[in-house]
Structure formats: structure tokens, C-alpha cells
Amino acid sequence: GSADQAFDLVVLGGGPGGYSAAFRAADLGLKVALVERYATLGGVCLNVGCIPSKALLHVAAVMDEASHMADLGVVFGEPTVDTTKLRAHKNKVTGKLTGGLAAMAKMRKVTVLRGVGSLLDAQHLKVEATEGAVGQAKTGAVQTVAFKRLIIAAGSQAVRLPFLPNDPRIVDSTGALEMGVKPEKMLIVGGGIIGLEMGTVYSTLGARLDVVEMLPTLMTGADRDLVKVWQKFNQHRFDNIMLNTKTVAAEARPDGIYVTFEGEGAPKEPQRYDLVLQAVGRTPNGKKIAAENAGVAVTDRGFIPVDVQMRTNVASVFAIGDIVGQPMLAHKAVHEGHVAAEVCAGELLGDDKLKKSQFDARVIPSVAYTDPEVAWVGITEDEAKAKGIKVTKGLFPWTASGRAIANGRDEGFTKLLFDEESHRIIGGGIVGTHAGDMIGEIALAIEMGADAVDIGKTIHPHPTLGESLGMAAEVAHGSCTDVP
Ligand code: FAD
């Protein structure tokens, strides 16, 4: 058929998965187009996810740290918060990064097409220009773009509970990041990472929190012992932590949102909130791109199944990131994007090495950027037990870490799990300040097949929190005779 433009590779979606794929493919020599419906690149992560949430969490962490200083003999004044300025700061942070992406796309000669993309067949994509479209005649204009390969990186969106009324006081993570309401009492629906991160910000800014979680623990997926430490440290933020409990109804009244609960922790009466954050998970955008026109399989839930090379059931079409499955994390999307780009380039340029690229990460780390941070990677103790894998544990409590004590923050610990037979490390978790910055070392150790001796004999600088990794490994191989 006829097309308005033709490319070697078209990438649908400009998030971490999409831009990583587009940039890698361009670097390898392909002619690439990146289709994005919004005015900025970066997707959920840069615009309304990872980055703006961390900009706000940083401010909250500094405020919390300052309030702890009273115990050390240093008293700051009561903080006053100008939310307009804070919002401007957050927008400046995201603007800097999305602007950087636009410049990098230009430098690599990646054509950015501003519009909503949908599949026409296994070689063509329809792009309907959106507001602010660059280099296109007018809003609403439709063009057909031909591709030899397509990478779908259309991401996910927040799940909306159908029984919650339409009201500005009921928000998802995107709404919460806008900081339009200054609540005295806030409900977090869903006790996962996103809900607890946003809860941390609002609580530090003065809100009392309730959280409701359907499952028996907060931060499902994390090692239970890590969560316990987090919960103890954060108890003061909460009026009520409702576990094994569901939100079943809500009514918007002039003085607040009245929410009804059902389950183990449910209060009998509806509860009043100034702000309700829905953080009950994200749903993939697989059903919104007319994938069926190209014969691309999409599951009932909207995921697109792929093989280890990120290829869908259609040879010319690949998919990456949130749209292909859990965990829905930016670093997973980036790595998958690189694989898909390399396979496409390998096939189109006849490069046998690139052709063999595949996603074979052993583990993908998770981090809750709360205070303290909670980070984990690989197998947990509970999972090992369930799978019948015998583990040797190396536990290092931060009450024995000189640095943690000097920081006035020794509530955390570092835990490593080794396979009892092979002695290799198969999992680990850290709860404490900067846990997220340290979890990469455990991921590397797992990827490299390190054992407790490898990690224990690696010289870590003293006095650091990272030292706790070497100490935990020494505990596991039994040679720990002293602690600093
Ligand atoms: P997305 O980032 O969702 O990007 C998809 C892009 O495709 C979007 O820009 C969208 O506009 C575009 N698009 C979709 N359909 C079309 C179409 N038909 N036409 C044109 N364009 C289209 N992950 C972490 O690893 N660390 C964190 O700290 C973290 N924090 C988070 C905090 C919050 C509040 C949220 C919501 C998420 C967070 N995540 C975090 C998750 C992370 O944002 C996602 O895993 C990541 O953005 C997924 O990347 P992606 O490329 O698959 O898709």
C-alpha cells in the first residue's frame, strides 16, 4: 500500500522502553521513527511516575531528616510549604529530563511523530496527529507510516475502581503528583510501592493517613521482615492500616469523601477523607492500539505476549515494557527495549551477533523509595520455602553498622540468601536509608553467580552502609568474628 513516510523501525510509545529502543536502533544504523501522543517524551516514568515522585520524596526526606535532628541537639523552625513552588520545582525536574530526551532524539536523527498510533497491518501504522504536533499540517491530520519492524512500547495506565465517583478529591498517582489538594486526612487505596511513596509525601506535608490493602501485607512481594521494619518506623504516619480489607463504596459529600470498607480491618461506619488516592495497580494498553489489525495476540487483560527476543506472534512486530507484563518497572522496560532494537537491527542489517540478542536477566530489582527505603532482588525467604529451596541466610543488622549509627538511622538491616547446595547468592533485601542505591550490588552478585566468600572478601569502603553487604556475606559463610 501507499504510505506517507517509510522507516526501517517504528517505535510506538515514547516511554523508557520506547525511547531506549529507538535510540539504540538509531545508534546501530537504522532509520527510526518514535510515535508519542503527548508533547514530551519520557512516558509515565519521566512525566508522571518515577522522576516527579522522587523529586517530591526528596523534599519529604529532607523535612523528615530535619525534624529528627532535634534529638541530636539541632532544632530547625517549623517548616512552611509553598505547594506552588514545590510543584514548579517538580515540573522543572521533569522538564529538564524530557527536554534532554528531545535533544537526544534530534542528535540521533530519530523522527518523533506526535500523535496517536494504531496498527493497520503488519507493515503499517496509522498516526493521528495530536495537539502541538511537530512538523504536521494540522491537529487531527492522519498519516500512514510504513515500517519493516515495529516495537510496541505503549505502556500502561492506572486502574480505576468503577464504583468510585468522579470527584477532584479522588485521584490516581498522576492526580496525587499535581498536589492540588492539601488534605488533613487521606486514604490510600492499595498498599503497594506507588501508594506508600505518595502517602509518605502527603504525610510529611501534614496529612494523617489511612491505608486499605486487600492482601495480608503492605508492599506485597517484598520480604516480610523488611516490611516489618518499614512499618514500625512509619506507624506514626497512620491512623489505620487496614489489611485483608476492601474498599466497596464511596460517596462524595461537600465535607469530604465517605468511604465504606469490607473485611478484616473494616471500620463499621463509612470514613471521611479529604483526599482518596487510588493506587490499585496498572493495566496495560494492549487493547487500545488495534493490534488485531496486524494479527498481534493480546491477552484478555491487555498484555502482549513475547518471546525472549521480545518478538510477538507476528514476525515483524516486537513489544516491550509495561505492556508485556510484570514487573512494571522502568529499568526492565529499558533493557527489553535494547534487546528488541538489537534484534531488529540484526535482522535488517544482516548482523548475526545482534540477531541473537535476548532478554536473559536472572533478576530484576524492586525499590520502594519510602523512608526508610525498602529494596529487594531475587528470591525471598518465603518464596524459597515455598519452592523447597534450602537457603543459608546472612543477616547484618544496622545496629552494628558504624555509619548507620553515626547517621542516627540504625533501624535497617541487610539480608542475603545463598543456595545451600551451590553456595551461590540467589536473593537479598535491604531496608534502611539508601537501600535502593545498594541493591544493584546484590543484583550484580546474582548475575555473576557469586558466593558468600566472593562477596565477603570483596573489600567495601569503611564506614559505609554498603559495607553491610560484605558483613552479611561473612555472617553467611560463618567467618564473622567481629563487627565494627
Ligand atoms: P510508559 O512509560 O507507560 O510509556 C508509554 C508511552 O506510550 C506513553 O508516553 C504514552 O503516552 C504512549 N502511548 C501509549 N499509547 C499510545 C498510542 N496509541 N499512540 C502514541 N503514543 C502512545 N518504575 C521504576 O522502575 N521506578 C520507579 O521509581 C517508578 N516509580 C513510579 C511511580 C509512579 C507514580 C508510577 C505511576 C510508575 C512508576 N514506575 C516506576 C513505573 C514506570 O513508570 C513504568 O514501568 C515505565 O514508565 C514503563 O515504561 P514503558 O516504556 O513500558 O511505558
Automatic annotation (TrEMBL):
Reactions catalysed according to its record: N(6)-[(R)-dihydrolipoyl]-L-lysyl-[protein] + NAD(+) = N(6)-[(R)-lipoyl]-L-lysyl-[protein] + NADH + H(+)
Keywords, alphabetical: Disulfide bond, FAD, Flavoprotein, Lipoyl, NAD, Oxidoreductase, Redox-active center
MF annotations from Gene Ontology: dihydrolipoyl dehydrogenase (NADH) activity
Details of cofactor binding: Binds 1 FAD per subunit.
Other facts: The active site is a redox-active disulfide bond.
Domain of life: Bacteria
Cofactor: FAD; (R)-lipoate
Lineage, highest ranks first: Bacteria, Pseudomonadati, Pseudomonadota, Betaproteobacteria, Burkholderiales
Entry EC number(s): 1.8.1.4
Family stated for the protein in its record: Belongs to the class-I pyridine nucleotide-disulfide oxidoreductase family.
Record protein name field: Dihydrolipoyl dehydrogenase
Organism: Pelomonas margarita
Range covered out of full length: 110 to 593 of 598
Record bears the keyword NAD: yes
EC class of the enzyme, as a word: oxidoreductase
